[in-house]
Input
Amino acid sequence: MLVSAKEMTAAARAGHYAIGAFNLNNLEWTKAVLKAAQEEQAPVIVQCSEGAGKYMSGYKTVVDMVNDVMDNMHITVPVALHLDHGTYEGCLACIDAGFSSIMFDGSHFDIEENIAKTKELVALAHSKGMSIEAEVGGIGGEEDGVVSQGECADPEECAKIASLGIDFLACGIGNIHGKYPANWAGLRFDVLEAIKDKVGDMPLVLHGGSGIPTEMIQEAIKLGVSKVNVNTECQIAFAEATRKYIEAGKDLQGKGFDPRKLLAPGSDAIVATVKEKRSSAPTARHDALTASHCICRARTGICRTNTEMKRVCRQDIPSCYFRPYMTGQSAIIVFRKLFIPLFQAYHNLPG
Ligand SMILES: [Zn+2]
Output
């Protein structure tokens, strides 16, 4: 079952780690990202741009594909299906189609219009139990044909959008989509810090996570980034592995032309990239592992159910991260009331 990304990003913000958000392009991508998340035992956001949604023949197809692949692969880690850089109309379509999270990118509107549209979509998304991301200022580079040169968000505008009840906020801090140029100046931590001061505990989103040096991502996580978007890196890994297969002439040997064989090295390369992206940020990996298993440790300091890396909480503890997904709506309410404060309490313990 797909879940909202609200709890996982709030837990990440409180625990100083980040959730990986990986873009989907087709069935291979879906299987590969979910496989990696399950093997790493980490919550994951799978996301889809409007262009990719069109390519995959519509949002409904994407929803059905992700749900069916999750069932078939027995995925037990929390998975959110998120619209990446949605237009107003795209958000409405994804709410209808059964996504569990949306991003409204109103960054190209003036701030008043961005606020008005974001506000409307926050109410709609929350009425359906979905999480919503908004954006302030442009992210450099190109996303689905929309080129944005804006590189740093205005902290005041961030505060305005953050106060609308959104669940996480995308803001430009010198990051860009696509490949980073050789003369890229790096992330603007001064801007990130100023934004963090204005938005408090609001989880922040780092777009264009492909190609940013690991230390910079780690630093950004310390300063409030709780969701890191990765797209280009998986695309390059897929293309390189496929190229290697063809250049080695393997498609000409036996039934090497069979797409199930032809696309296998690329798919494996996506799995490896997703895992590597996560393990390259050790803090993120460790904490995400803990959170994705069981948060019972929040109460005792020792996770009693996690010793054998069990995926499901065997104890009937209301604050357990896994329990709500198994016991329905009432538990989700208990979860919201108990989980975040307990998690924070745990992380505030001395030593
Ligand atoms: Zn983006």
